[in-house]
Amino acid sequence: xxxxxxxxxxxxxxxxxxxxxxxxxxxxxxxxxxxxxxxxxxxxxxxxxxxxxxxxxxxxxxxxxxxxxxxxxxxxxxxxxxxxxxxxxxxxxxxxxxxxxxxxxxxxxxxxxxxxxxxxxxxxxxxxxxxxxxxxxxxxxxxxxxxxxxxxxxxxxxxxxxxxxxxxxxxxxxxxxxxxxxxxxxxxxxxxxxxxxxx
Length: 199
Known about the structure:
Layout: H1 2-20, E1 28-33, E2 41-44, E3 50-53, E4 57-60, H2 66-78, E5 87-93, E6 108-114, E7 120-124, H3 130-136, E8 150-155, E9 158-163, H4 166-171, E10 186-189
Parallel strand pairs: 6-10
Antiparallel strand pairs: 1-2, 1-5, 3-4, 6-7, 8-9, 8-10
């Protein structure tokens, strides 16, 4: 009985800590929408603090608590549904305290697809960043949606999407956004809408 009470007390402490925790770049989250299981997925908080989610696009997560992110996602998704949504966010894995080190590689395949000059598979033998991968693909095409580029990565067998802040990376405002790619990563450059200017 005493052990059960102690365990329950520890669970309460953990719950309080998680409730107050502010999400940060590198955190891996699980997001589920009870009314639409097709949306359930894992996402990574990008270096600029954003996540990418279907029907929402990119939304700020860095600096928010889990409860606040749940509310923000529910608000953005609600227009697509008649019934009130139940959105649940879980912290699957916390970010490492130190920035991602430069990887040591012998050879790996990375992919660039979408609105670039030459999409395809590129075999690289040295650490390659997102900007370098785009350069390998000949650069962005004129119809590239610079604000919606994502990196698709396999983590624990699941596809996660990492938003990439192209303008901030190029201008030096957000160097952390220009992460090193891993074997099998896919840089996806969507096409912008003709009526949406340069976005």
